C-alpha cells in the first residue's frame, strides 16, 4: 500500500491511505512550497493518497520575479 | 474539501484566507483580488498603457493574463539575457512568444547581446558588482531596458510580476540589515519622475503559491526550471524562513508586508525619504536619469564591455 510523490525529478515512496498533508509533513516538505497535481488536476492537501498512484508536486518557490 | 463558493470540489485551499475554491471560482477570485490591489493603490487605470515585463515564469505570465482578462491595455516585454545554460533564455523567449501568440497580445523582445554586444554573464564578468554572479548586473540591465522601452513606446507604467513572497523576502532582508534607504524605496507603486517610468507591482498581495496555482489552473505553459544563476540566492533563505513562519501562523507573510506598508504610509520612514532624495542628472549617453555626474551605471557597463570587444575583435569572448 504505497503512493509516490514526485518533486523536481525526485520520487518519494509514502504510505497510501494517509492525507497528502501528513505525507508532506513526514517528508519535511512545507505544503506552501508545492502544488500537488494528480492526473493533471490540482488537488487540496486533505486528499487521501491512493495505493499505486503518483502525485506530482510542482515547486512554487523561485529566486526572483518570474 | 468543498469549494466555499459553489460547494463543488475544491482545487485550491488558502489557509491564510480561510478559503478553498474550485477551479472556476479561483480563476474569478484571483483577478478580482488583483483588481482591488490596483485600485486601492491607484496603480493605473484602463486609460493607461501598461508594459508587462515577462520572463516566461509563472508570476509574470499570471500577471499578464490577469491584466488582459481585466481589460487593461498591456503589452509584454521579454529581455533575452543570453543565458545559454540549459538553453534558458531561448526557451523562455519561445514560451513568451507562444503565450502572446495564443492570446493575440503584443510582445516586444530585446536581445541584450544583439543590442549591447554581450550576454549578461559576460557583462557581469567585467563588473565589480557582478563578481561571481550576474544577478546584480541583470537587475541593472533589466531596469534600464524596461525604462527605455516604456519611454520610447509611450507606456505609462511598467508592471512586474513581483509577488507577496518576493516582497516579503526583500522586506525581511532589508529589515535584518536595517537598510532604511532600501526600505523607503519598497512600495507597490513607484511614481514616475522625469525620464523614469512609473513602476507597479500588481501581484504584491498575491502569495507566490497563489500565482502558481493560477498559472496551473489556467493551463499556462511556463518555465519550471529556475534561472541557473539563482542557486544560493539570499531570496531562497528568506523565503524559507518566511514559509516556516507561515506554516505556524497562516497569514504571517501577508501581515508582515501589509503592516510594513501601513507603517510606511503613516510616516515611519519619512526622515529617510529626505536623506534618500539624491540629485538626478541626465546620462550623456542614453539620456536616462542617473545619480552619477557622468554616464549612468548601465552605460558605463556597456561601454567597458564594448571597449574590450573592440580591442580584441577576433577573440572568443570566453577567453577575454
Structure report:
The complex is a heterodimer of chains A (66) and B (320). Chain A has 66 residues and is mainly beta. Chain A has a single domain (2-59), classed as Beta-grasp domain (Ubiquitin-like (UB roll)), CATH 3.10.20. Chain A is built from one helix and five strands; from the N terminus they run ββαβββ. In chain A, strands 2-1-5-3-4 form a five-stranded mixed beta sheet, with no helix packed on it. The model of chain A has no long low-confidence stretch (mean pLDDT 93). By secondary structure, chain B is α/β, with parallel strands linked by helices. In chain B, the strands form three sheets. Chain B has a six-stranded mixed beta sheet, sandwiched between helices. In chain B, strands 1-2 form a two-stranded antiparallel sheet. Chain B has a two-stranded antiparallel ribbon with strand order 9-10. The longest helix of chain B has 19 residues, at 135-153. The N and C termini of chain B lie far apart (59 Å). The A-B interface holds A 30-33, 35, 37, 41-46, 58-66 and B 1, 10-13, 20, 23, 53, 55-60, 135, 160-163, 165-166, 207-209, 211-213, 216-217, 222-224, 226-227, 230-231, 233, 235-236, 239-240, 243-244, 246-247.
Amino acid at each position: 500500500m504505497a503512493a509516490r510523490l514526485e518533486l523536481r525529478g525526485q520520487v518519494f515512496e509514502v504510505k497510501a491511505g494517509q492525507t497528502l498533508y501528513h505525507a508532506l509533513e513526514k517528508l519535511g516538505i512545507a505544503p506552501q512550497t508545492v502544488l500537488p497535481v494528480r492526473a493533471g488536476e490540482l488537488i487540496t492537501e486533505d486528499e487521501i493518497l491512493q495505493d499505486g498512484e503518483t502525485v506530482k508536486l510542482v515547486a512554487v518557490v523561485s529566486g526572483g520575479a518570474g | 474539501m468543498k469549494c466555499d463558493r459553489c460547494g463543488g470540489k475544491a482545487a485550491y485551499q488558502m489557509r491564510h484566507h480561510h478559503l478553498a475554491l474550485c477551479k472556476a471560482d479561483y480563476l474569478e477570485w484571483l483577478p478580482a483580488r488583483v483588481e482591488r490591489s490596483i485600485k486601492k493603490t491607484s496603480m493605473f487605470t484602463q486609460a493607461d498603457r501598461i508594459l508587462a515585463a515577462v520572463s516566461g515564469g509563472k508570476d509574470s505570465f499570471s500577471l499578464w493574463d490577469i491584466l488582459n482578462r481585466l481589460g487593461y491595455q498591456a503589452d509584454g516585454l521579454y529581455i533575452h539575457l543570453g543565458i545559454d545554460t540549459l538553453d534558458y533564455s531561448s526557451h523562455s523567449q519561445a514560451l513568451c512568444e507562444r503565450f502572446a501568440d495564443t492570446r493575440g497580445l503584443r510582445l516586444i523582445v530585446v536581445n541584450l547581446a544583439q543590442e549591447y554586444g554581450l550576454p549578461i554573464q559576460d557583462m557581469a564578468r567585467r563588473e565589480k558588482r557582478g563578481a561571481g554572479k550576474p544577478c546584480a548586473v541583470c537587475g541593472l540591465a533589466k531596469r534600464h531596458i524596461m525604462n527605455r522601452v516604456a519611454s520610447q513606446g509611450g507606456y505609462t507604467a511598467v508592471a512586474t510580476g513581483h509577488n507577496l513572497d518576493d516582497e516579503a523576502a526583500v522586506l525581511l532582508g532589508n529589515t535584518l540589515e536595517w537598510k532604511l534607504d532600501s526600505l523607503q524605496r519598497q512600495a507597490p507603486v513607484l511614481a514616475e519622475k522625469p525620464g523614469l517610468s512609473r513602476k507597479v507591482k500588481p501581484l504584491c498581495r498575491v502569495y507566490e503559491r497563489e500565482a502558481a496555482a493560477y498559472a496551473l489552473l489556467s493551463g499556462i505553459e511556463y518555465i519550471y526550471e529556475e534561472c541557473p544563476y539563482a542557486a544560493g540566492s539570499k531570496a531562497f533563505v528568506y523565503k524559507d524562513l518566511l514559509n516556516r513562519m507561515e506554516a505556524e501562523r497562516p497569514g504571517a507573510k501577508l501581515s508582515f508586508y501589509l503592516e510594513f506598508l501601513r507603517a510606511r504610509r503613516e510616516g515611519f520612514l519619512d526622515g529617510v525619504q529626505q536623506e534618500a532624495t539624491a540629485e538626478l542628472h541626465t546620462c550623456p549617453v542614453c539620456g536616462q536619469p542617473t545619480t552619477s555626474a557622468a554616464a549612468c551605471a548601465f552605460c558605463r557597463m556597456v561601454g567597458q564591455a564594448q571597449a574590450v570587444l573592440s580591442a580584441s575583435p577576433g577573440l572568443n569572448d570566453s577567453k577575454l
